[in-house]
Specification:
CATH topology: Jelly Rolls
Strand content: over 45%
Mean pLDDT: 91
Radius of gyration: 15 Å
Structural class: mainly beta
CATH architecture: Sandwich
Length: about 130
């Protein structure tokens, strides 16, 4: 099968969706048919996940406050940040397409939070692709 615009075969593309609402969430992979995988996502052995895009939505926060969405690997290493000013109803979010992105090693958990908080993460979607660990 031909490679996509990202130089990867379609089977290597990954779309992850946060599970539930709140902070410190896990992600599941969304299958090509739209169904969620049965288990929390970790890059498989011998592969890395190259993250290229992130979408997030935040609700019920303090109106017109600044909120910074963060992605962590291994629960403590910040690899991504995106800051917005919430609207007058306390909602906001962003769609980020990264030039260089970040890499997640096999078996590693991806988690998220928002600071200073006061509301809830409504959804988070992470997109990227798998490639061989070198």
């Amino acid at each position: 099968m031909a490679n996509t615009h990202m130089g990867q075969p379609p089977k290597n593309h990954v779309t992850l969706e946060s599970v539930g609402t709140g902070q410190g969430l896990d992600f599941v992979r969304i299958n090509p048919d739209g169904t969620p995988a049965d288990e929390d996502f970790r890059p498989p052995s011998g592969k890395v996940l190259v993250v290229s895009d992130v979408d997030w939505q935040y609700n019920a926060g303090p109106p017109e406050s600044r909120q910074t969405f963060r992605i962590f690997i291994n629960d403590d290493r910040t690899v991504f940040e995106s800051t917005v000013i919430l609207n007058h109803q306390g909602s906001g979010g962003a769609s980020e397409a990264m030039t260089s992105g970040f890499v997640v090693s096999s078996g590693i958990r991806i988690t998220i939070d928002v600071s200073p908080g006061g509301g809830v993460i409504n959804h988070a979607i992470v997109r990227g692709y798998l490639c061989r660990e070198s």
